[in-house]
Amino acid sequence: MTFSQLMLPEPLLRAVTELGYETPSPIQAAAIPKLLAGEDLLGQAQTGTGKTAAFALPLLARLDPSQNEPQILVLAPTRELAIQVAEAFQAYARFMPAFHVLPLYGGQSYTNQLKSLKRGSQVIVGTPGRILDHLDRGTLKLDKLRAIVLDEADEMLRMGFIDDVQTIMDATPAGRQVAMFSATMPSQIRAIAQKHLKNAHEIKIESKTSTVERISQRYVMLDSNQKLDALTRVLEGEEYDASIIFVRTKSATEEIAEKLGARGYAVACLNGDMNQANREQTIRRLKASQIDVIVATDVAARGLDVERISLVINYDIPYDSEAYVHRIGRTGRAGREGKAILFVSPRERRLLRTIEVATRQPIEKMSLPTGEVIEQRRIETFRATLANTIEAKNLSFFQDLINDWREKLETTDADLAAALLFMAQKDQPLNVAKQFPEIREPHARGDRPDRPAERSGERPARFERGDRPERSGDRPERAPRPRREMQGNYNTYRIEVGKEHGVRAGDIVGAIANEANIDSQFIGNIKLFDHFSTVELPADIPTEIFQHLKKVYVRKQKLNISVDTGSAAGERTERPAGERRPSSAPAGAGSRPGAAPKRRTRE
Length: 603
What we know:
The chain is α/β, with parallel strands linked by helices. The strands form four sheets. It has a seven-stranded parallel sheet, with helices on both faces. Residues 1-29 form the DEAD-box RNA helicase Q domain.
Protein backbone atom coordinates (compact mmCIF):
# COMPACT_ATOMS: atom_id res chain seq x y z
CA MET A 1 0.00 0.00 0.00
CA THR A 2 1.09 3.59 -0.70
CA PHE A 3 -0.15 6.83 0.84
CA SER A 4 -1.84 7.71 -2.45
CA GLN A 5 -4.12 4.69 -1.98
CA LEU A 6 -5.39 6.06 1.36
CA MET A 7 -7.50 8.75 -0.37
CA LEU A 8 -5.74 11.66 1.32
CA PRO A 9 -6.09 15.13 -0.28
CA GLU A 10 -3.35 16.28 -2.64
CA PRO A 11 -1.79 18.90 -0.26
CA LEU A 12 -1.28 16.22 2.40
CA LEU A 13 0.11 13.70 -0.10
CA ARG A 14 2.54 16.32 -1.35
CA ALA A 15 3.73 17.06 2.21
CA VAL A 16 4.08 13.36 3.01
CA THR A 17 6.17 12.84 -0.14
CA GLU A 18 8.48 15.74 0.68
CA LEU A 19 8.94 14.40 4.20
CA GLY A 20 10.21 11.16 2.68
CA TYR A 21 7.30 8.91 3.63
CA GLU A 22 6.93 6.13 1.09
CA THR A 23 4.61 3.49 2.49
CA PRO A 24 2.30 3.75 5.51
CA SER A 25 3.33 2.02 8.71
CA PRO A 26 0.93 -0.69 9.96
CA ILE A 27 -0.89 1.67 12.31
CA GLN A 28 -1.17 4.33 9.60
CA ALA A 29 -2.57 1.86 7.09
CA ALA A 30 -5.14 0.65 9.62
CA ALA A 31 -6.10 3.95 11.27
CA ILE A 32 -6.20 6.49 8.42
CA PRO A 33 -9.17 4.98 6.51
CA LYS A 34 -11.22 4.66 9.71
CA LEU A 35 -10.55 8.22 10.85
CA LEU A 36 -11.14 9.55 7.33
CA ALA A 37 -14.57 7.91 7.48
CA GLY A 38 -15.35 9.76 10.71
CA GLU A 39 -15.23 6.68 12.95
CA ASP A 40 -13.95 6.63 16.54
CA LEU A 41 -10.71 4.74 17.08
CA LEU A 42 -8.95 2.98 19.95
CA GLY A 43 -5.33 2.27 19.05
CA GLN A 44 -2.82 0.29 21.07
CA ALA A 45 0.67 1.07 19.75
CA GLN A 46 4.11 1.84 21.10
CA THR A 47 5.77 5.21 20.62
CA GLY A 48 7.76 5.26 17.37
CA THR A 49 5.25 3.31 15.25
CA GLY A 50 4.10 6.41 13.36
CA LYS A 51 0.87 7.05 15.26
CA THR A 52 1.12 10.85 15.05
CA ALA A 53 0.70 10.70 11.27
CA ALA A 54 -1.97 8.03 11.78
CA PHE A 55 -4.30 10.56 13.41
CA ALA A 56 -2.96 13.91 12.14
CA LEU A 57 -3.29 13.19 8.40
CA PRO A 58 -6.93 12.00 8.35
CA LEU A 59 -8.08 14.67 10.79
CA LEU A 60 -6.38 17.39 8.73
CA ALA A 61 -8.19 15.99 5.68
CA ARG A 62 -11.52 16.58 7.45
CA LEU A 63 -10.61 20.12 8.54
CA ASP A 64 -12.64 23.13 7.39
CA PRO A 65 -9.96 25.68 6.35
CA SER A 66 -12.48 28.56 6.34
CA GLN A 67 -13.15 28.13 10.07
CA ASN A 68 -10.46 29.72 12.26
CA GLU A 69 -11.65 28.19 15.53
CA PRO A 70 -10.43 25.03 17.28
CA GLN A 71 -11.59 22.00 15.30
CA ILE A 72 -9.06 19.44 16.55
CA LEU A 73 -7.83 19.06 20.14
CA VAL A 74 -4.91 16.76 20.97
CA LEU A 75 -4.12 16.00 24.62
CA ALA A 76 -0.53 14.95 25.44
CA PRO A 77 1.06 14.11 28.81
CA THR A 78 4.16 16.34 28.56
CA ARG A 79 5.02 19.69 27.02
CA GLU A 80 7.75 18.02 24.96
CA LEU A 81 5.28 15.64 23.33
CA ALA A 82 2.82 18.51 22.79
CA ILE A 83 5.51 20.46 20.93
CA GLN A 84 6.50 17.41 18.90
CA VAL A 85 2.90 16.71 17.85
CA ALA A 86 2.30 20.39 17.00
CA GLU A 87 5.42 20.38 14.82
CA ALA A 88 4.18 17.25 13.03
CA PHE A 89 0.81 18.91 12.30
CA GLN A 90 2.64 21.94 10.92
CA ALA A 91 4.82 19.73 8.71
CA TYR A 92 1.88 17.76 7.32
CA ALA A 93 -0.18 20.92 6.70
CA ARG A 94 2.61 22.90 5.03
CA PHE A 95 0.63 23.13 1.77
CA MET A 96 -2.72 23.91 3.42
CA PRO A 97 -3.43 27.66 3.19
CA ALA A 98 -4.19 29.68 6.32
CA PHE A 99 -3.51 26.74 8.63
CA HIS A 100 -2.59 27.40 12.27
CA VAL A 101 -1.67 25.02 15.08
CA LEU A 102 -1.12 26.18 18.66
CA PRO A 103 0.67 24.23 21.43
CA LEU A 104 -0.53 25.05 24.97
CA TYR A 105 1.43 23.83 27.97
CA GLY A 106 2.55 24.89 31.43
CA GLY A 107 5.59 27.12 31.76
CA GLN A 108 4.50 29.48 28.98
CA SER A 109 3.27 32.97 29.70
CA TYR A 110 -0.53 33.14 29.71
CA THR A 111 -0.25 36.52 27.99
CA ASN A 112 1.35 35.04 24.88
CA GLN A 113 -1.07 32.11 24.85
CA LEU A 114 -4.07 34.43 25.12
CA LYS A 115 -2.83 36.49 22.17
CA SER A 116 -2.41 33.35 20.08
CA LEU A 117 -5.85 32.06 21.04
CA LYS A 118 -7.42 35.37 20.00
CA ARG A 119 -5.72 35.15 16.59
CA GLY A 120 -7.31 31.73 16.11
CA SER A 121 -6.04 28.21 15.43
CA GLN A 122 -7.74 25.19 13.88
CA VAL A 123 -5.64 22.70 15.89
CA ILE A 124 -4.83 22.91 19.60
CA VAL A 125 -2.22 20.56 21.08
CA GLY A 126 -1.81 20.77 24.82
CA THR A 127 -1.22 19.23 28.20
CA PRO A 128 -4.35 18.55 30.29
CA GLY A 129 -3.52 20.99 33.09
CA ARG A 130 -3.08 24.02 30.82
CA ILE A 131 -6.01 23.09 28.57
CA LEU A 132 -8.27 22.87 31.62
CA ASP A 133 -6.97 26.21 32.89
CA HIS A 134 -8.01 27.88 29.63
CA LEU A 135 -11.40 26.19 29.72
CA ASP A 136 -11.91 27.47 33.29
CA ARG A 137 -10.89 30.98 32.22
CA GLY A 138 -13.21 30.88 29.22
CA THR A 139 -10.30 31.64 26.88
CA LEU A 140 -10.56 28.33 24.99
CA LYS A 141 -13.83 27.54 23.23
CA LEU A 142 -14.52 24.00 22.05
CA ASP A 143 -18.07 24.40 20.73
CA LYS A 144 -16.85 23.98 17.09
CA LEU A 145 -14.64 21.00 17.91
CA ARG A 146 -14.78 18.19 15.33
CA ALA A 147 -12.31 15.72 16.86
CA ILE A 148 -10.34 15.06 20.04
CA VAL A 149 -7.26 12.84 20.34
CA LEU A 150 -5.81 11.35 23.52
CA ASP A 151 -2.15 10.60 22.80
CA GLU A 152 -0.29 8.28 25.20
CA ALA A 153 -3.35 7.91 27.39
CA ASP A 154 -1.64 5.47 29.77
CA GLU A 155 1.09 8.06 30.44
CA MET A 156 -1.57 10.63 31.36
CA LEU A 157 -3.04 8.08 33.74
CA ARG A 158 0.36 7.39 35.30
CA MET A 159 1.06 11.10 35.77
CA GLY A 160 -2.24 11.79 37.50
CA PHE A 161 -4.04 13.61 34.68
CA ILE A 162 -6.91 11.18 34.26
CA ASP A 163 -9.48 13.33 36.14
CA ASP A 164 -8.50 16.37 34.09
CA VAL A 165 -8.85 14.32 30.90
CA GLN A 166 -12.35 13.23 31.95
CA THR A 167 -13.35 16.84 32.65
CA ILE A 168 -12.03 18.02 29.26
CA MET A 169 -13.79 15.18 27.44
CA ASP A 170 -17.07 16.11 29.14
CA ALA A 171 -16.65 19.70 27.93
CA THR A 172 -16.42 18.71 24.24
CA PRO A 173 -19.45 18.59 21.91
CA ALA A 174 -21.35 15.31 21.85
CA GLY A 175 -20.93 14.70 18.13
CA ARG A 176 -17.14 15.03 17.99
CA GLN A 177 -14.92 12.25 16.72
CA VAL A 178 -12.64 10.57 19.30
CA ALA A 179 -9.29 8.83 18.79
CA MET A 180 -7.40 7.33 21.72
CA PHE A 181 -3.88 5.91 21.57
CA SER A 182 -2.14 4.06 24.37
CA ALA A 183 0.80 1.66 24.64
CA THR A 184 -1.07 -0.34 27.29
CA MET A 185 -4.76 -0.68 28.13
CA PRO A 186 -5.30 -0.56 31.90
CA SER A 187 -8.86 -0.73 33.20
CA GLN A 188 -9.21 3.03 33.71
CA ILE A 189 -8.26 3.71 30.08
CA ARG A 190 -10.75 1.08 28.96
CA ALA A 191 -13.41 2.80 31.09
CA ILE A 192 -12.78 6.16 29.38
CA ALA A 193 -12.96 4.48 25.99
CA GLN A 194 -16.26 2.80 26.81
CA LYS A 195 -17.74 6.08 28.04
CA HIS A 196 -16.62 8.45 25.30
CA LEU A 197 -16.01 6.32 22.17
CA LYS A 198 -18.95 5.15 20.08
CA ASN A 199 -18.66 1.94 18.08
CA ALA A 200 -14.91 2.42 18.11
CA HIS A 201 -12.69 0.47 15.77
CA GLU A 202 -9.87 -1.12 17.80
CA ILE A 203 -6.33 -1.50 16.44
CA LYS A 204 -3.40 -3.23 18.12
CA ILE A 205 0.06 -2.90 16.61
CA GLU A 206 3.13 -4.74 17.83
CA SER A 207 6.41 -2.88 17.38
CA LYS A 208 8.89 -4.97 15.40
CA THR A 209 11.61 -2.36 15.14
CA SER A 210 15.15 -3.62 15.59
CA THR A 211 18.56 -2.29 14.67
CA VAL A 212 21.89 -3.55 13.45
CA GLU A 213 24.16 -4.46 16.34
CA ARG A 214 27.37 -3.81 14.41
CA ILE A 215 26.53 -0.13 13.94
CA SER A 216 28.06 2.31 16.42
CA GLN A 217 25.39 4.93 17.19
CA ARG A 218 26.12 8.37 18.62
CA TYR A 219 24.39 11.74 18.83
CA VAL A 220 25.39 15.40 19.08
CA MET A 221 23.26 17.97 20.94
CA LEU A 222 23.25 21.28 19.08
CA ASP A 223 21.05 24.09 17.80
CA SER A 224 19.75 24.04 14.22
CA ASN A 225 21.99 26.94 13.18
CA GLN A 226 25.07 24.93 14.26
CA LYS A 227 24.34 21.95 12.01
CA LEU A 228 26.40 22.88 8.95
CA ASP A 229 29.49 23.67 11.02
CA ALA A 230 28.99 20.44 12.95
CA LEU A 231 28.60 18.49 9.71
CA THR A 232 31.91 19.71 8.30
CA ARG A 233 33.65 18.90 11.59
CA VAL A 234 32.26 15.36 11.62
CA LEU A 235 33.28 14.79 7.99
CA GLU A 236 36.77 16.09 8.80
CA GLY A 237 37.24 14.37 12.14
CA GLU A 238 35.69 10.91 11.55
CA GLU A 239 37.35 8.04 9.72
CA TYR A 240 35.15 6.74 6.90
CA ASP A 241 35.34 5.62 3.31
CA ALA A 242 32.05 7.09 2.09
CA SER A 243 29.19 8.80 3.92
CA ILE A 244 25.47 9.37 3.40
CA ILE A 245 23.77 12.41 4.99
CA PHE A 246 20.02 12.24 5.55
CA VAL A 247 17.78 15.33 5.43
CA ARG A 248 13.99 15.73 5.33
CA THR A 249 13.39 17.66 2.12
CA LYS A 250 14.50 17.56 -1.50
CA SER A 251 15.56 21.21 -1.42
CA ALA A 252 17.80 20.52 1.58
CA THR A 253 19.69 17.82 -0.35
CA GLU A 254 20.63 20.35 -3.02
CA GLU A 255 21.41 23.14 -0.58
CA ILE A 256 23.71 21.08 1.66
CA ALA A 257 25.40 19.33 -1.28
CA GLU A 258 26.16 22.74 -2.79
CA LYS A 259 27.65 24.05 0.48
CA LEU A 260 29.76 20.93 0.98
CA GLY A 261 30.95 21.11 -2.61
CA ALA A 262 32.08 24.70 -2.01
CA ARG A 263 34.13 23.37 0.92
CA GLY A 264 35.95 20.95 -1.30
CA TYR A 265 34.02 17.71 -0.76
CA ALA A 266 33.30 15.27 -3.58
CA VAL A 267 29.53 15.28 -3.02
CA ALA A 268 26.26 14.60 -4.85
CA CYS A 269 22.60 14.52 -3.86
CA LEU A 270 19.86 11.91 -4.19
CA ASN A 271 16.23 13.02 -4.10
CA GLY A 272 12.83 12.21 -5.55
CA ASP A 273 13.21 14.69 -8.42
CA MET A 274 16.01 12.66 -10.01
CA ASN A 275 15.15 10.26 -12.79
CA GLN A 276 16.36 6.66 -12.62
CA ALA A 277 19.25 7.22 -15.03
CA ASN A 278 20.70 10.08 -12.95
CA ARG A 279 20.20 8.09 -9.76
CA GLU A 280 22.06 5.09 -11.18
CA GLN A 281 24.86 7.30 -12.45
CA THR A 282 25.29 8.88 -8.99
CA ILE A 283 25.45 5.45 -7.35
CA ARG A 284 28.03 4.26 -9.92
CA ARG A 285 30.20 7.29 -9.15
CA LEU A 286 29.89 6.55 -5.43
CA LYS A 287 30.95 2.93 -5.93
CA ALA A 288 33.87 4.04 -8.14
CA SER A 289 35.13 6.47 -5.43
CA GLN A 290 34.51 9.45 -7.71
CA ILE A 291 32.32 10.93 -4.96
CA ASP A 292 32.57 10.31 -1.21
CA VAL A 293 29.47 11.99 0.23
CA ILE A 294 25.78 11.59 -0.66
CA VAL A 295 23.05 13.92 0.67
CA ALA A 296 19.71 12.15 0.43
CA THR A 297 16.08 11.96 1.49
CA ASP A 298 14.59 8.78 2.94
CA VAL A 299 12.73 7.86 -0.24
CA ALA A 300 15.72 8.36 -2.54
CA ALA A 301 18.00 6.20 -0.37
CA ARG A 302 15.66 3.20 -0.04
CA GLY A 303 17.42 0.04 -1.20
CA LEU A 304 20.82 1.77 -1.50
CA ASP A 305 23.56 -0.82 -0.80
CA VAL A 306 27.08 0.45 -1.40
CA GLU A 307 29.89 -1.30 0.46
CA ARG A 308 31.91 1.91 0.76
CA ILE A 309 29.30 3.62 2.99
CA SER A 310 30.71 3.37 6.50
CA LEU A 311 29.19 6.52 8.04
CA VAL A 312 25.54 7.66 8.16
CA ILE A 313 24.78 11.18 9.42
CA ASN A 314 21.21 12.07 10.38
CA TYR A 315 21.38 15.81 9.68
CA ASP A 316 17.62 16.00 10.36
CA ILE A 317 16.27 13.62 12.97
CA PRO A 318 13.51 11.39 11.53
CA TYR A 319 10.00 11.67 12.95
CA ASP A 320 9.70 7.93 13.67
CA SER A 321 12.03 5.13 14.61
CA GLU A 322 11.24 3.00 11.55
CA ALA A 323 12.72 5.69 9.30
CA TYR A 324 15.78 5.87 11.56
CA VAL A 325 16.39 2.12 11.26
CA HIS A 326 16.08 2.32 7.47
CA ARG A 327 18.58 5.18 7.41
CA ILE A 328 21.33 3.64 9.52
CA GLY A 329 20.82 0.37 7.68
CA ARG A 330 22.64 1.92 4.71
CA THR A 331 25.84 1.05 6.61
CA GLY A 332 26.85 -2.02 8.60
CA ARG A 333 25.37 -4.32 5.95
CA ALA A 334 26.32 -7.95 5.41
CA GLY A 335 28.26 -8.15 8.64
CA ARG A 336 30.29 -5.01 8.00
CA GLU A 337 30.84 -2.46 10.74
CA GLY A 338 29.43 1.03 10.41
CA LYS A 339 28.90 4.30 12.25
CA ALA A 340 25.76 6.43 12.63
CA ILE A 341 25.69 9.98 14.01
CA LEU A 342 22.48 11.84 14.85
CA PHE A 343 22.11 15.65 15.14
CA VAL A 344 19.59 16.49 17.88
CA SER A 345 18.32 19.88 19.05
CA PRO A 346 17.12 20.33 22.66
CA ARG A 347 13.49 20.28 21.57
CA GLU A 348 14.02 16.96 19.77
CA ARG A 349 15.30 15.03 22.78
CA ARG A 350 12.01 13.18 23.07
CA LEU A 351 12.43 11.85 19.53
CA LEU A 352 15.90 10.67 20.54
CA ARG A 353 14.53 8.73 23.49
CA THR A 354 11.76 7.28 21.30
CA ILE A 355 14.39 5.92 18.90
CA GLU A 356 16.41 4.43 21.77
CA VAL A 357 13.35 2.65 23.17
CA ALA A 358 12.21 1.36 19.79
CA THR A 359 15.66 0.13 18.75
CA ARG A 360 16.38 -1.26 22.22
CA GLN A 361 19.85 0.22 22.04
CA PRO A 362 21.27 3.32 23.75
CA ILE A 363 22.69 6.06 21.56
CA GLU A 364 25.92 7.42 23.00
CA LYS A 365 26.51 11.15 23.34
CA MET A 366 29.58 12.42 21.51
CA SER A 367 31.62 15.61 21.33
CA LEU A 368 32.36 17.29 18.04
CA PRO A 369 35.97 17.17 16.80
CA THR A 370 37.93 20.20 17.98
CA GLY A 371 40.10 22.39 15.77
CA GLU A 372 43.20 20.62 17.10
CA VAL A 373 41.78 17.21 16.15
CA ILE A 374 40.87 18.40 12.65
CA GLU A 375 44.31 19.97 12.17
CA GLN A 376 46.09 16.79 13.27
CA ARG A 377 43.90 14.67 11.00
CA ARG A 378 44.67 16.85 7.98
CA ILE A 379 48.38 16.60 8.73
CA GLU A 380 48.22 12.81 9.04
CA THR A 381 46.23 12.52 5.81
CA PHE A 382 48.70 14.72 3.94
CA ARG A 383 51.64 12.76 5.37
CA ALA A 384 50.08 9.45 4.28
CA THR A 385 49.55 10.80 0.76
CA LEU A 386 53.13 12.02 0.68
CA ALA A 387 54.45 8.60 1.81
CA ASN A 388 52.41 6.83 -0.89
CA THR A 389 53.74 9.22 -3.53
CA ILE A 390 57.36 8.65 -2.49
CA GLU A 391 56.88 4.90 -2.59
CA ALA A 392 54.82 4.55 -5.76
CA LYS A 393 55.90 7.32 -8.13
CA ASN A 394 59.00 7.90 -10.22
CA LEU A 395 60.30 11.21 -8.87
CA SER A 396 63.64 11.51 -10.73
CA PHE A 397 62.50 14.43 -12.91
CA PHE A 398 61.29 16.35 -9.85
CA GLN A 399 64.43 15.53 -7.89
CA ASP A 400 66.51 17.15 -10.65
CA LEU A 401 64.28 20.23 -10.48
CA ILE A 402 64.70 20.44 -6.70
CA ASN A 403 68.48 20.29 -6.99
CA ASP A 404 68.45 22.98 -9.69
CA TRP A 405 66.09 25.28 -7.73
CA ARG A 406 68.02 24.89 -4.50
CA GLU A 407 71.17 26.24 -6.20
CA LYS A 408 69.46 29.00 -8.17
CA LEU A 409 67.38 30.18 -5.19
CA GLU A 410 70.32 29.81 -2.81
CA THR A 411 68.13 28.16 -0.20
CA THR A 412 68.15 25.05 1.95
CA ASP A 413 66.32 21.77 1.42
CA ALA A 414 64.15 22.52 4.48
CA ASP A 415 63.07 25.96 3.23
CA LEU A 416 62.38 24.64 -0.25
CA ALA A 417 60.30 21.74 1.09
CA ALA A 418 58.40 24.09 3.43
CA ALA A 419 57.58 26.47 0.56
CA LEU A 420 56.35 23.62 -1.65
CA LEU A 421 54.30 22.22 1.24
CA PHE A 422 52.74 25.66 1.81
CA MET A 423 51.73 25.87 -1.84
CA ALA A 424 50.39 22.29 -1.92
CA GLN A 425 48.10 22.73 1.09
CA LYS A 426 46.43 25.97 0.05
CA ASP A 427 43.13 24.32 -0.94
CA GLN A 428 42.93 22.57 2.44
CA PRO A 429 45.20 24.41 4.90
CA LEU A 430 46.96 22.32 7.51
CA ASN A 431 47.27 25.03 10.17
CA VAL A 432 43.54 25.37 11.00
CA ALA A 433 43.11 24.77 14.74
CA LYS A 434 42.16 28.39 15.44
CA GLN A 435 39.65 28.43 12.57
CA PHE A 436 37.34 26.03 14.42
CA PRO A 437 36.05 27.74 17.56
CA GLU A 438 34.30 25.67 20.19
CA ILE A 439 30.66 24.80 19.53
CA ARG A 440 28.92 25.00 22.86
CA GLU A 441 26.11 22.62 23.64
CA PRO A 442 22.76 24.43 23.88
CA HIS A 443 20.86 24.47 27.15
CA ALA A 444 18.66 21.41 27.37
CA ARG A 445 15.86 21.04 29.91
CA GLY A 446 14.62 17.66 30.99
CA ASP A 447 11.11 16.47 30.25
CA ARG A 448 8.78 18.03 32.77
CA PRO A 449 5.13 17.10 33.04
CA ASP A 450 2.54 19.84 33.07
CA ARG A 451 1.52 19.76 36.73
CA PRO A 452 -2.24 19.48 37.31
CA ALA A 453 -3.57 22.85 38.47
CA GLU A 454 -5.42 23.40 41.73
CA ARG A 455 -9.11 22.60 41.45
CA SER A 456 -10.32 24.20 44.72
CA GLY A 457 -12.05 26.99 42.88
CA GLU A 458 -9.36 29.53 43.75
CA ARG A 459 -6.23 30.25 41.82
CA PRO A 460 -2.89 29.50 43.50
CA ALA A 461 -1.38 32.61 45.03
CA ARG A 462 1.14 33.20 42.28
CA PHE A 463 1.25 34.90 38.90
CA GLU A 464 2.44 33.68 35.54
CA ARG A 465 5.00 35.88 33.89
CA GLY A 466 3.18 38.40 31.84
CA ASP A 467 0.24 38.42 34.30
CA ARG A 468 1.93 40.28 37.18
CA PRO A 469 0.01 43.34 38.46
CA GLU A 470 1.57 46.74 37.98
CA ARG A 471 3.39 48.08 41.03
CA SER A 472 2.13 51.34 42.44
CA GLY A 473 4.27 54.43 42.36
CA ASP A 474 6.45 55.97 39.74
CA ARG A 475 9.10 53.90 38.05
CA PRO A 476 12.41 55.33 36.90
CA GLU A 477 12.85 55.51 33.16
CA ARG A 478 14.75 52.54 31.74
CA ALA A 479 17.75 53.26 29.63
CA PRO A 480 17.22 52.08 26.05
CA ARG A 481 18.68 48.68 25.37
CA PRO A 482 21.71 48.81 23.06
CA ARG A 483 21.39 47.31 19.63
CA ARG A 484 23.12 43.91 19.52
CA GLU A 485 24.97 43.16 16.33
CA MET A 486 23.67 39.95 14.74
CA GLN A 487 26.13 37.19 13.97
CA GLY A 488 26.55 35.88 10.43
CA ASN A 489 25.22 37.28 7.15
CA TYR A 490 21.90 39.12 7.37
CA ASN A 491 19.74 40.92 4.83
CA THR A 492 17.07 43.54 5.37
CA TYR A 493 13.71 42.41 3.97
CA ARG A 494 10.56 44.39 3.27
CA ILE A 495 7.11 43.06 4.17
CA GLU A 496 3.84 44.64 3.07
CA VAL A 497 2.20 45.15 6.46
CA GLY A 498 2.60 48.27 8.59
CA LYS A 499 1.15 50.59 11.22
CA GLU A 500 -2.06 51.21 9.33
CA HIS A 501 -2.85 47.49 9.56
CA GLY A 502 -2.41 47.43 13.32
CA VAL A 503 0.67 45.21 13.21
CA ARG A 504 3.12 44.90 16.10
CA ALA A 505 6.68 43.63 16.08
CA GLY A 506 5.58 40.60 18.07
CA ASP A 507 3.09 39.64 15.34
CA ILE A 508 5.89 39.64 12.77
CA VAL A 509 8.26 37.65 14.98
CA GLY A 510 5.58 35.05 15.68
CA ALA A 511 4.60 34.66 12.03
CA ILE A 512 8.17 34.30 10.77
CA ALA A 513 9.23 31.99 13.62
CA ASN A 514 6.23 29.71 13.06
CA GLU A 515 6.13 29.69 9.28
CA ALA A 516 9.88 29.73 8.48
CA ASN A 517 11.12 27.74 11.49
CA ILE A 518 13.52 30.56 12.36
CA ASP A 519 14.17 30.85 16.09
CA SER A 520 13.34 34.34 17.34
CA GLN A 521 16.96 34.93 18.38
CA PHE A 522 17.84 34.96 14.66
CA ILE A 523 15.23 37.57 13.78
CA GLY A 524 16.93 40.96 13.87
CA ASN A 525 15.64 44.52 14.00
CA ILE A 526 12.04 45.13 12.95
CA LYS A 527 10.97 48.65 11.96
CA LEU A 528 7.33 49.54 11.49
CA PHE A 529 6.26 52.18 8.94
CA ASP A 530 2.82 53.32 7.81
CA HIS A 531 2.39 51.01 4.82
CA PHE A 532 5.13 48.43 5.27
CA SER A 533 7.81 47.17 7.66
CA THR A 534 11.40 45.97 7.45
CA VAL A 535 12.97 43.01 9.21
CA GLU A 536 16.52 41.66 9.39
CA LEU A 537 16.76 37.92 8.63
CA PRO A 538 19.57 35.48 7.74
CA ALA A 539 20.73 35.92 4.17
CA ASP A 540 20.68 32.20 3.38
CA ILE A 541 16.94 31.54 3.77
CA PRO A 542 16.08 28.53 1.54
CA THR A 543 14.12 29.45 -1.57
CA GLU A 544 11.09 27.30 -0.70
CA ILE A 545 10.77 28.93 2.74
CA PHE A 546 11.19 32.41 1.23
CA GLN A 547 8.43 31.67 -1.30
CA HIS A 548 6.24 30.32 1.50
CA LEU A 549 6.72 33.51 3.55
CA LYS A 550 5.42 35.56 0.61
CA LYS A 551 2.03 33.89 1.12
CA VAL A 552 1.87 34.21 4.91
CA TYR A 553 -0.73 36.59 6.33
CA VAL A 554 -0.25 38.93 9.31
CA ARG A 555 -3.18 41.10 10.39
CA LYS A 556 -5.04 39.91 7.27
CA GLN A 557 -2.24 41.25 5.07
CA LYS A 558 -0.06 39.03 2.89
CA LEU A 559 3.61 39.56 3.80
CA ASN A 560 4.78 39.38 0.17
CA ILE A 561 8.33 39.50 1.52
CA SER A 562 11.13 40.80 -0.69
CA VAL A 563 14.74 41.87 -0.28
CA ASP A 564 14.77 45.55 0.64
CA THR A 565 16.65 47.38 -2.12
CA GLY A 566 16.31 50.81 -0.50
CA SER A 567 13.96 51.96 -3.25
CA ALA A 568 11.37 52.73 -0.61
CA ALA A 569 13.57 55.29 1.13
CA GLY A 570 11.21 58.06 0.14
CA GLU A 571 8.42 56.34 2.05
CA ARG A 572 10.48 56.35 5.27
CA THR A 573 10.35 60.02 6.07
CA GLU A 574 8.11 59.21 9.03
CA ARG A 575 9.74 57.95 12.18
CA PRO A 576 9.26 54.19 12.69
CA ALA A 577 6.41 53.48 15.09
CA GLY A 578 8.32 50.75 16.84
CA GLU A 579 11.55 48.90 16.60
CA ARG A 580 12.15 45.39 17.83
CA ARG A 581 15.63 44.88 19.18
CA PRO A 582 17.12 41.41 19.01
CA SER A 583 17.70 39.92 22.43
CA SER A 584 20.71 37.95 23.52
CA ALA A 585 18.59 34.83 24.09
CA PRO A 586 15.61 33.33 22.27
CA ALA A 587 12.35 35.00 23.16
CA GLY A 588 8.80 34.34 22.19
CA ALA A 589 6.80 36.49 19.87
CA GLY A 590 5.85 39.68 21.59
CA SER A 591 7.49 38.64 24.86
CA ARG A 592 9.29 41.17 26.97
CA PRO A 593 12.66 40.73 28.73
CA GLY A 594 12.44 37.93 31.26
CA ALA A 595 9.37 36.30 29.75
CA ALA A 596 9.50 32.58 29.08
CA PRO A 597 10.37 31.78 25.45
CA LYS A 598 7.50 30.69 23.29
CA ARG A 599 7.89 27.31 21.61
CA ARG A 600 7.57 27.33 17.85
CA THR A 601 6.15 24.82 15.43
CA ARG A 602 8.24 24.08 12.33
CA GLU A 603 8.13 22.49 9.03
